[in-house]
Amino acid sequence: MKILVTGGFGYIGAHFINRLKEHEILVVENFCQGRNNVIEGIQYKEVDIRNKEKLLEVFREFRPDIVVHYAALANVPDSVANPAKYYDTNIIGSLNVLECMREVGCKKIIFSSTAAVYGQSDELINEDHPKNPTSPYGHSKLMFEQILKDYHRAYGISSVSFRYFCASGCDEGGKIGCYHDPETQAIPNLVKTLLGKQEIFNVWGGDFPTPDGTGVRDYIHVNDLADAHILAIKKLEENGCFDYNLGINKGFSVMELIKEAERVTGKKLNYKMSPRRAGDPATIIASSMKAQKELRWTPKYTDIGEIILTDYNFFKTQ
Ligand SMILES: NC(=O)c1ccc[n+]([C@@H]2O[C@H](COP(=O)([O-])OP(=O)(O)OC[C@H]3O[C@@H](n4cnc5c(N)ncnc54)[C@H](O)[C@@H]3O)[C@@H](O)[C@H]2O)c1
């Protein structure tokens, strides 16, 4: 099968490709975040998805059977300050991807959506939960999910939208990891501080309505995300427009992450409390039962200490 992967050398895309060697893969990247030396032997084109003309040339030449669409801007606080950038890439760029698919008759797409489409909730969030994004980033992803529904009805393009909760961890081989710059996620910043690669770890917000006042998130390992995408390729043998949450159905506060990271590494973390960041909700925890039932997907990494160690082992080598 010919699979075109946008943003395939970013954090989550690279882990997917690493587990998917038997297919013919073409990565489309502008390298604003991704690195082109993470996985050897993968063909790629340096193209920005906002450049429709160049993108179409790539689609015409490669003629994919399926698109896995990771390329996006994904920094929540930055999206609050600079919404135009986010709508440009996440909506206009993504529409270009769909239009190129129409042009070459490609009828299947797997889309990286996000838990940020839901906003704050104290309950486990299933797919029917009200959508209430708290940032332009979340809005951009929700809008594109709607566009996918419209493209299915009008043009017969089938899709799986995955709403990832907090992507975390790195491949256990220690060779592929997280390359975000700047990094906004808790675990990579935490382990970089433990390793002495940055001076202090910021706990963004100690006054959330949570048991210890810090934000609570559901951390899902990137290799589990990758496995869900592989199962989605099979799911798309059916015609339809599907959405699934991907998380471990359990939340951890930032203070709990710190405790666990100190326990598994035997090191003491230098941290400070800082004000909340714009767009960050207090608590988001998944119910992923739909993906578990319909895709037969089971997350293998459910021990937060083990997840943190995979990050720690990767950043040790950087
Ligand atoms: N990391 C998370 O916790 C998380 C959670 C929910 C959803 N997501 C979504 O998952 C996807 C991948 O996230 P990630 O963490 O791997 O991010 P990432 O930044 O590491 O990967 C995105 C990749 O897309 C590329 N890219 C960005 N804009 C592009 C453009 N205009 N043209 C071509 N390539 C472009 C970047 O160079 C990068 O390699 C994104 O769509 C993101 O919104 C991520």
Order of helices and strands: EHEEHEHHEHEEHEEEHEEHEEHH
CATH topology of the largest domain: the name is Rossmann fold
Briefly, what CATH class of the largest domain? Answer: Alpha Beta
CATH hierarchy: architecture of the largest domain: 3-Layer(aba) Sandwich
Number of H/I helices = 10
- By secondary-structure content and strand pairing, the structural class works out as alpha/beta
pLDDT under 50 segments (min length 5)? none
CATH homologous superfamily designation of the largest domain: NAD(P)-binding Rossmann-like Domain
What share of residues is helical?
Answer: 25-40%
On the 0 to 100 scale, the average pLDDT is 95
Family: Belongs to the NAD(P)-dependent epimerase/dehydratase family.
Cofactor: NAD(+)
GO biological process, one term: galactose metabolic process
Protein name: UDP-glucose 4-epimerase
Describe this structure in words.
With 318 residues, the protein is of the alpha/beta class. The chain has two domains: 2-167 and 220-246, NAD(P)-binding Rossmann-like Domain (Rossmann fold, 3-Layer(aba) Sandwich), CATH 3.40.50; 169-217 and 249-316, UDP-galactose 4-epimerase, domain 1 (Alpha-Beta Complex), CATH 3.90.25.10. The protein is 38% helix and 19% strand. The chain is built from ten helices and 14 strands. Helix 4 runs parallel beside helix 5. It is globular. Nicotinamide-adenine-dinucleotide is lined by residues 6-7, 9-13, 28-34, 48-50, 70-74, 89, 93, 112, 114, 164, 166-167, 179-180.
